[in-house]
TrEMBL record:
Coiled coil stretches, renumbered: none
Isopropylmalate dehydrogenase-like domain boundaries: 5-344
Cofactor(s) the protein requires to work: Mn(2+); Mg(2+)
Endpoints of the signal sequence: none
Family assignment from sequence similarity: Belongs to the isocitrate and isopropylmalate dehydrogenases family.
EC numbers for this chain: 1.1.1.83
Reaction catalysis annotation: (R)-malate + NAD(+) = pyruvate + CO2 + NADH
Keyword Protein biosynthesis: no
Keywords: Manganese, Metal-binding, NAD, Oxidoreductase
Name by which UniProt lists this protein: D-malate dehydrogenase (decarboxylating)
MF terms in GO: D-malate dehydrogenase (decarboxylating) (NAD+) activity; magnesium ion binding; NAD binding
Length: 352
């Protein structure tokens, strides 16, 4: 028996509704593969912010530093500005634990209609830089409230930061279809983006079997809609990767199915696994949330912990339930969160 201790952060809204299904399927797949998961749950959320003035305690990172992984639902709630929930919880974890790769696989699944006609064969991964770039605290505002009011925000691109995320993308492409598309905008953004291009080219030179396409972000957004099946690995800065991965998830049919991994590839710190979607206040508390994004994120956690077979089984059961026609409302079905989860567990041979 291999034991793992997981830090659980349900967060807000449907975050708390999609993690119990993930725990249930992890228990089921774990039983078959000799894996045991125990959880420490943390109430870090907007609710906590409203009650105590902070999303998490000041020693929050220390409390989860020695866990094997972090599983997160979603954070954000009306009444708390979104930058508070992001900068008070997600960004400190991503940066404090050097989770510099944000991995977002996108697939068109059997039983999930894509809004695009003929988007049959989409199977791509967005590799988003996760700790620097456009999401920086450097900058400021001057002359508040005056006619000359202004805001300046600096983007930070480092040789080390770009090189390591590009290395990750190229290595990943070597294990897939040997194709990397680099998202850039070096025609308009004349300092950081040419630097990005130069560093990606340096990394490309070390991976001769991989074909590279360099695309400006605007044209790339259009191509992702027109011909999503052409892409294998897309590598982008923090902002470009964020936008492209939501776009790609929508192309695949629903934000509710999209997973993500925030990886510290060196394993000095725990990595964090979370569905791409937010807390969905419009459907929270109604049992309607699609848990697939969370289940797929749990499968990515199994991969990261070194159990690709268990991960594959979990995904086969989750995708198989969809193909059988058991779908949540966001996918045009009638199943609720519990019903879809039951169908997945059934496929794993677990009596409900
Ligand atoms: P959202 O992803 O929460 O919801 C967008 C739409 O998709 C809504 O109509 C929602 O009902 C639907 N949806 C999302 N996930 C679903 C699921 N699993 N099953 C079925 N339907 C689903 O994005 P929104 O509305 O922009 O943000 C709501 C809150 O969540 C905000 O406070 C935002 O800051 C936060 N947020 C947090 C994220 C995170 O924790 N990583 C990511 C995105 C947003
Ligand atoms: Mg996003």
């Amino acid at each position: 028996m291999t034991a793992y201790r997981i830090a659980l952060i349900p967060g807000d809204g449907i975050g708390a509704e999609v993690l119990p299904p993930a725990q249930a399927v992890l228990a089921a797949v774990g039983r078959r593969h000799g894996l045991e998961f125990t959880y420490d749950s943390f109430d870090w959320s907007c609710e906590r912010y409203l009650a105590e003035g902070a999303m998490m305690p000041s020693d929050g990172l220390d409390r989860i530093r020695h866990h094997d992984a972090v599983l997160l639902g979603a954070v954000g709630w009306p009444g708390v500005p979104d930058h508070v929930s992001l900068w008070g919880l997600l960004i400190p974890i991503r940066r404090g634990f050097r989770q510099y790769v944000n991995l977002r696989p996108v697939k068109v699944l059997d039983g999930v209609p894509s809004p695009l006609r003929g988007a049959g064969e989409v199977d791509l991964v967005v590799v988003r830089e996760n700790v620097e770039g456009e999401y920086s605290e450097i900058g400021g505002r001057l002359g508040r409230g005056t006619e000359d009011e202004l805001a300046v925000q600096e983007a930070v691109f480092t040789r080390k930061g770009v090189t390591r995320v590009a290395e990750y993308a190229y290595t990943l492409a070597e294990a897939r279809r040997n194709h990397v598309t680099s998202a850039t905008k070096s025609n308009g953004i004349v300092h950081t983006m040419p630097f990005w291009d130069q560093l990606v080219e340096e990394v490309a030179g070390r991976h001769q079997t991989v074909r590279t396409d360099k695309e400006h972000i605007d044209a790339l957004a259009a191509k992702l809609v027109l011909a999503p099946e052409r892409f294998d690995v897309i590598v982008g800065s923090n902002l470009f990767g964020d936008i492209l991965s939501d776009l790609a998830a929508a192309v695949a049919g629903s934000i509710g199915v999209a997973p993500s991994a925030n990886l510290n590839p060196e394993r000095e710190f725990p990595s964090m696994f979370e569905p791409v979607h937010g807390s969905a206040p419009d459907i929270a508390g109604q049992g309607k949330a699609n848990p697939l994004g969370a289940l797929w994120s749990a499968a990515m956690m199994l991969d990261h912990l070194g159990h690709p077979e268990a991960s594959g089984e979990l995904l086969a059961a989750a995708f198989g339930a969809l193909a059988d026609g058991v779908r949540t409302v966001d996918l045009g079905g009638t199943a609720d969160t519990a019903g879809y989860t039951r169908a997945v567990l059934d496929r794993m041979g677990v009596a409900a």
